[in-house]
Specification:
Layout (H helix, E strand, L loop, with lengths): L14 H27 L3 H27 L14
């Protein structure tokens, strides 16, 4: 029986992808502030709940951005698959 080695080549996301995530975080954060402000001003629970939903999107985008940054850290003798928290 023949044995084949399977190698995975992982590459870190490009700098432009990081820029897209940063821009998305900024725009979504601005939208959350505007929507929450108008929601408080108009006493609109609908706008406030949507602002909360968009805020969770901002946290998700931040989490992905952090994961991309951690994926760039090279492996070493202690962390053979890269840096771990």
């Amino acid at each position: 029986m023949e044995h084949h080695h399977h190698h995975h080549h992982h590459s870190a996301p490009s700098q432009s992808l990081n820029g897209i995530f940063i821009l998305s975080i900024i725009l979504n954060s601005f939208f959350v502030l505007v929507e929450a402000g108008v929601g408080f001003w108009q006493n609109s629970l609908s706008l406030l709940s949507d602002a909360g939903h968009n805020l969770s999107d901002v946290f998700s985008l931040l989490l992905v951005l952090i994961a991309f940054r951690l994926a760039k850290v090279q492996r070493n003798e202690r962390f053979t698959y890269g840096w771990l928290l």
